[in-house]
Amino acid sequence: VGNSSVLICSPKPNTTMVTWKISPKVGGHCSLGYRADQNKTDRTNCSDSINWKFRPDRDPTLEIRQVGRAHEGSYTCEVVVADGNFHTSYYLTVLVPPRLTLSCDDQGNPVCEAVAGKPAAQISWVLENNSTPKEEEHDNGTVTVLSKFTGYSTNGTTCTVSHPTGKWSKSIAC
């Protein structure tokens, strides 16, 4: 989320036409097209954040700026030349880093939360405990994971959250 994503569509000599067909997981389809005989580009239902990275007559690479969850889905590039049609397909998965919170509950137990990540984060504790993490799925596709430390520690406890976007740790003494 928030970064740019570049999808490469290999250029071919004597390209007649290039089309990017985009089918998001949620929302309507969009397409970008280029016709060499008219040196003309066309776009249908694509947001401004989706566009050619370079001039399509030289390089048909697609760029998605400020990637959001709405960009998740299938992206197919079709290059038409005299020898036939060539396809390159991608499935864009959008990762959302969770927010880490660590607090103490009413009984003085540390509670670690990885809030609204995609996919769900993994929570572990530096000291062993028998906590079973609980997951709460949100309508926007993100997941909050909550884990309560149930062991005993007088010096404080450290929670570690692991996610494809990174790894974070926080310590607390309750």
From TrEMBL:
<protein>
    <submittedName>
        <fullName>MOR1A protein</fullName>
    </submittedName>
</protein>
<keyword id="KW-0472">Membrane</keyword>
<dbReference type="InterPro" id="IPR036179">
    <property type="entry name" value="Ig-like_dom_sf"/>
</dbReference>
<dbReference type="GO" id="GO:0150077">
    <property type="term" value="P:regulation of neuroinflammatory response"/>
</dbReference>
<dbReference type="InterPro" id="IPR013783">
    <property type="entry name" value="Ig-like_fold"/>
</dbReference>
<dbReference type="InterPro" id="IPR013106">
    <property type="entry name" value="Ig_V-set"/>
</dbReference>
<keyword id="KW-0325">Glycoprotein</keyword>
<keyword id="KW-1015">Disulfide bond</keyword>
<feature type="domain" description="Ig-like">
    <location>
        <begin position="60"/>
        <end position="173"/>
    </location>
</feature>
<dbReference type="InterPro" id="IPR007110">
    <property type="entry name" value="Ig-like_dom"/>
</dbReference>
<dbReference type="InterPro" id="IPR040012">
    <property type="entry name" value="CD200R"/>
</dbReference>
<keyword id="KW-0812">Transmembrane</keyword>
<dbReference type="GO" id="GO:0038023">
    <property type="term" value="F:signaling receptor activity"/>
</dbReference>
<dbReference type="Pfam" id="PF07686">
    <property type="entry name" value="V-set"/>
</dbReference>
<keyword id="KW-1133">Transmembrane helix</keyword>
<comment type="similarity">
    <text>Belongs to the CD200R family.</text>
</comment>
<dbReference type="GO" id="GO:0009897">
    <property type="term" value="C:external side of plasma membrane"/>
</dbReference>
